Amino acid sequence: MTTTVCSVASTQLWQQCLEQVATAIDNQDDFHQLIAPLQMAESAQGVTVYAPNAFIFDRVRESYLPVIEQYLRAQKPEFTTIRISFVLGAPEQPSSHASPARNQSPTSSRSPYPLNPRFSFDQFITGRSNEFAFAAAQQAAANPGTAYNPFVIFGSTGLGKTHLMQSIGHAVLEKDPSKKILYLHAEKFLSEMIKSLRHGTMDTFKSILSDADVLMLDDVQFFANKERSQEELFHRFNEKLEDNKQVILTSDRYPKELDGFEDRLKSRFTWGLCVGVDPPELETRVAILIQKSQLLGLTLSEEVAFFIADKIQTNVRELEGVLKRLIAHSKFSGEAIDLQFTKTALKDLLTIHSRQVSLDRIQQAVSRYYKIKTSDLTGKRRLQSITRPRQLAMFIAKTLTSRSLPEIGRAFGGRDHTTVLHACQKISGLLETDTDLKIDYDNLISLLSS
To answer: Could you tell me which residues are beta bridge partners of residue 185?
Structure first.
């Protein structure tokens, strides 16, 4: 029997192969979750590629084995004719007095879905918009399964929910490398569950979920109206809580607001702690831009950072996209990135952003239309001449933006999400019967859309 050994040279060669495979496939989620965990070893009989579990084995064999074999054979001339095997298991490690795992990320061998190494607590910029969520996430990481379980992070897209979630996973592994961390985007959960049902490997899928000490599900709103998937999630959820294993969820809205979910599931989502993340304020946006520019090898002046941060107020993802666009323009033109260059390079993009509807713009439009002060909309006065415009402004905010009820409530004087929900329900009903209100609503929508 021939023994295959995972040598240092083999590991380096395999990493080169993986880099080429990563550029050759379109689905980068599949690369990180299915291909990156594979290992390779050489022997006298040829090359063997190892899958850590049956779940990954089935998916790679079904979709990616030919492309992996193609790039693997291109690594060395002798690889063009040797036998390449694909098996379930792990290669033997070379004997050494040094610990083989010392220079290896725990997630690379512990999880079929490795975490993003950039998503750690020390890379997360905090401000008033996210400091509570950050502190709570650190507490959850320090005491997994006991501090806050489940731990739910909600907010609009691009605000750092996934970053915070995966930071918990990294922190747990740093404290105890033996912990099994499982991160899944909801859409990946759904697609893999469907494949498992189709191929008769549902027991393997359940086993991967059950084995995790920390289960992280990203963007759970995608489970809406998926009854079979919600049923499976419900059982795995209960299983984790009974075993004191940590469950972390992210959502684009407060759990009670999720449409298309069973009440029993929404109730369980709120058993632990739910924390919201809001769009970053100006100073935090500036800090984010400067940090991102440094990671991209650029020194961005504070003047330019403040200009961009003042114009782009939506989320971190858009800030990063604008920064990359600016760098691309600079490389193409050969010009340095100063304030004038930034204004010229981003002119079209900033014009589009200036037309987008924000909560501030809605409040200003409603206050002008009804000839009241903007402070009246965020204040405590309960006069009918103020409460109705305030309720309408909240309803329009919910209609025209992707902000959650808690986010809207905070923008309207720190009101509770239930107050916003009541306002939306009230206005929705009145629009069916109150002709004057319907005219006001249509006029405001027209003003905000122009």
So the answer is: 218
Tell me which amino acid residue 330 is.
Answer: S
SS (H, E, C) 418-436: HHHHHHHHHHHHHCCCCHH
Residue 255 near residue 282 (C-beta atoms within 8 A): no
Q: How far apart are CA 69 and CA 421, in angstroms?
A: 55
The pTM for the full model equals: 0.61
In order, the DSSP letters of 123-161 are: G----TTTHHHHHHHHHHHHSTTTSSSSEEEE-STTSSH
Using an 8 Å Cβ cutoff, are 397 and 358 in contact? no
Contact 336, 330 (CB under 8 A): yes
Q: Is 188 helix (H, G, I), strand (E, B) or coil?
A: helix
For residue 49, list its beta bridge partners: 40, 86
Query: Which CATH fold would you assign to the domain 359-449?
Result: Chromosomal Replication Initiator Protein Dnaa; Chain: A; (1.10.1750)
Nearest to 277 by CA among 162, 138, 423: 162
Judge whether 119 and 167 are in contact, CB under 8 Å. Answer: yes
Digit-coded pLDDT (tens) for 72-120: 888 877 777 777 788 877 776 554 444 443 334 333 334 555 678 888 9
Domain 121-276 superfamily per CATH = P-loop containing nucleotide triphosphate hydrolases (3.40.50.300)
What is the CB neighbour count within 10 angstroms for residue 430? 17
173: nearest Cα among 182, 160, 185 = 182
Judge whether residue 215 has pLDDT over 90.
yes
User: pLDDT tens digit string along 306-353?
Assistant: 988 888 877 788 888 888 888 888 888 888 889 999 888 888 777 666
The helix or strand, by DSSP H or E, that contains position 264, with its residue range, turns out to be helix 263-269
Q: What is the DSSP letter of 32?
A: I
CB–CB of 252/404 below 8 Å?
Answer: yes
CB 110 within 8 A of CB 180: yes
Annotated domain spans of the chain: 8-96, 121-276, 282-354, 359-449
The domain made up of 8-96 has a fold known as GMP Synthetase; Chain A, domain 3 (3.30.300)
- Alpha helices for 253-383 (secondary structure H): 263-269, 282-295, 302-311, 316-333, 339-345, 347-354, 359-370, 374-378
CATH C-level class of 282-354: mainly alpha
